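Lecture 7, part 2: worked example. A protein chain together with nicotinamide-adenine-dinucleotide.
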Amino acid sequence: IPVEPFDLVIFGGTGDLARRKILPGLFRRFRAGQMTPDSRIIGAARAPLDADAYREMIRQGIEEFGGPESKDSESLAAFLDRLDYVSVDATVEEGWPRLAALMRDGVVRAFYFSVAPSLFGPLAEKLHEHAIADVDSRIVVEKPFGRDLESARALNRTLAEYFREEQIYRIDHYLGKETVQNLMAVRFGNLLFEPLWNNHYVDHIQITVAETVGVEGRGGYYDKSGAMRDMVQNHLMQLLCLIAMEPPSRFEAGAVRDEKLKVIRALQPVPVHHIVRGQYDAGDGHPSYREEAGNPRSFTESFIAIRAEIANWRWAGVPFYLRTGKKLKARHSEIAVVFKDLPHTIFEGDHARHRNILSIRLQPNEGIDLTVTIKEPGPGGMRLIDVPLDMTFSEALGQEGQDVPDAYERLIMDVIRGNQTLFMRGDEVEAAWAWTDPLIAGWEARNDVPKLYDPGSTGPDDALMLLHREGRRWREIK
Ligand code: NAD
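Predicted complex, written out as C-alpha cells:
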C-alpha cells in the first residue's frame, strides 16, 4: 500500500549511512510500490554536486549495498529519477533558498538528519528560518542522541524550540527489525505467554549483541563513547523495555512509550561487581583496540556485561543480563527468556535440566523459537530431549522472492505515515541516560581498567563469572 506523497530531504545525503542504508532501503520501498509517483527524495549535503552527479553516486551505493534488487536496472533508473540534490551547509546561508524553493505544498515533508549531532540544532534553525519545515513536517534524528543526560536534555531543548515532540522521530534501527515487532506480536497476541511473563516463571533474561568487527576507522569517535554509550544506552535498553514492559492498552505510540518509560525508570542502580568491562587485545594478526583507537592508554570498553534489575512487582528478583561487544566470536544478537526449572520431574532417570527458553534472534537469521521438552522419538523408552519450536514461520518471513523490508526502510515509511510507535520519545532517552550516567561516572572515578579479551572470544572471563557465580550460564554466541 503506497504511503502518502512525500518530499524527503536527507541531510548528509552523501554520507556513509545514506549510501549504505537509507537510499538502498528507499529503493526497495520504491520497488515494492510504496512510493507514490509524485514522491521525491532530495539529498542535501555540503558537496558541490549537481543532481546527475548525486544520482550517479547513489546508483553506485545501491549497486554496492542494495542486494539482488539493484540488478533491476529499469526500476533503479526510475527510482534515481525521483532524486534531486541541493548543496547546503548547516552553518552558512548559501543553498537554503534553493532548498526552500524546491519544497511543495500538499505533500508530507520529512527531513532526515543523517549528520553529526552537533548539526541537529543548526539544521533545525535553518529549516525554521527559511520556512522550509511546516507545522506538520517531521524530522528524523540519528544516534547518538547526546553522550549523557545533560547533553541529551540540551538537544531535546534545542529541537523543541523548532518542533513539537510529535514531529521528532528519534531513530533506533533495532526497533525496526521484523523480529523485534514479532516479539510484541508473540507476547501480546497469544494467551500463552503473558501469564508466565513474570518472576514466578522466568528465571532470568539475557540480551546479547555480539559483533565480530572492531572499531576500525571509527576508533577516534568510539574511544570517546565506548560500548555503554554506543550500544547499551540505546539499543540494548530499547530491547529490554520491549521484553519487560507492561502490556500497553493499545499498540499506539503514546501507550507503548509510556510503558517503556516506566521500565527504564524502574531500573535499579547497578553495583560495581555487576558490571564487567572489557577491551579487545591484539591477536591472530589483528591489532588491539588501543592500536585501532590510536590511544595507547585508552580505558574505553569495547565490551560490557551488566546484571540489571527492574524493581517492580513483575520483575523483582529476575536478573536481566546484558552483554555487547566488538571483535567477538560471531555476529550474533539474541534476547533469551529463560524460564525456571520444573518443580519436580516425574521421569525416572532423567537428570538433565530441561528448561523452556524463548529465543528471539535479531541477527544473523532473524527468528523466534521456543525450546520445549519432548520424548525422543523411537523405542528407547521415555527419554527426554529439548527441541526448538520454530515460531517464525520463515516462509512467511522473507524467503526468496518475498519482500521483507529491513529496519531502516520500515522506519522511514513509518515516518511518512506519521507513526511514532517504534521511535524513542525525548523523555525515554533522557531516562536511559539517567540510568547509565552514574554507572559511567562510577568507573571513571575509579579509573577502572577494562579486562583484556582475545579477539574471536566471548569476552573477558569475568563476564562468564557474572553468571557462573549464580549458577547460570550465558547462551552460546554462534
Ligand atoms: P558521514 O561522515 O559519512 O557523512 C556525513 C554527512 O554530513 C555528509 O553527507 C556531509 O556532507 C554532511 N555534512 C557534514 N557537515 C555538514 C554541514 N556543515 N552541513 C551540511 N551537511 C554536512 O557520516 P555517516 O556515517 O553517514 O553518519 C551520519 C549520522 O548518522 C551520524 O550522526 C552518525 O553518528 C549516525 N549513524 C551512522 C551510522 C553508520 O552506519 N554510518 C549508524 C548509525 C548512526
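Residues 11-18, 45-47, 88-91, 114-117, 119, 142-143 surround nicotinamide-adenine-dinucleotide (CB under 6 Å). The longest strand covers residues 202-210. Keep this in mind for problem set question 3.
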